[in-house]
Amino acid sequence: MPDNKYRFPLFLAALALASSVFADDDPRHERHELMESVGEAAKPVGEMLKGEAEFDADTLLQSLNVWKDVGGQFGGLFPEGSETGMGTEAAPAIWEDRAGFEKALAKWQAAVDGAIEAGPDSLEAAKPVIGPVFEACKGCHDNYRIAEE
After folding, report:
1. b vs e for 83-94, b when ≥16 Cβ sit within 10 Å of the residue's Cβ?
2. Are 64 and 126 in contact (CB under 8 A)?
3. Cα(33)–Cα(28) distance, integer angstroms
4. Fewer CB within 10 Å: N-end or C-end of the chain?
5. Are 94 and 149 in contact (CB under 8 A)?
6. What is the pLDDT along the chain (149 residues), one digit of tens a residue?
């Protein structure tokens, strides 16, 4: 059973994911909500990897499943006309290099799927399968996200 301190962030991530279904149908809003859920799900995983929290396989799997759900929805939320406005952090490169963006998203999805399939039951087993997930996140953010100033 997940540590109580992880239940609320995971609840928030699930709520954000669910609320995106009922959002105002603006893809910029939906993208933002989904990325918030990815970030919330990453917090407990990061804490475990850094040794700030005890490893919990159930918590890790919950986070991986949030990421898998997001990955299945995210690629379709970048239609023409949603490049600007509403404080979007989506970089123009998404529309300029759609094939590269889709390849980066597929890399992240494959890393998430691989981590789920591996089913790590210890921190030592988790590190090599979670590393590629976070590397894929970084790769996409480096190329397809407007950097915060």
Report:
1. eeeeebebbeeb
2. no
3. 9
4. C
5. no
6. 556 666 666 666 666 665 545 456 899 999 999 999 999 999 999 999 999 999 999 999 999 999 999 999 999 999 999 999 988 999 999 999 999 999 999 999 999 999 999 999 999 999 999 999 999 999 999 999 998 76
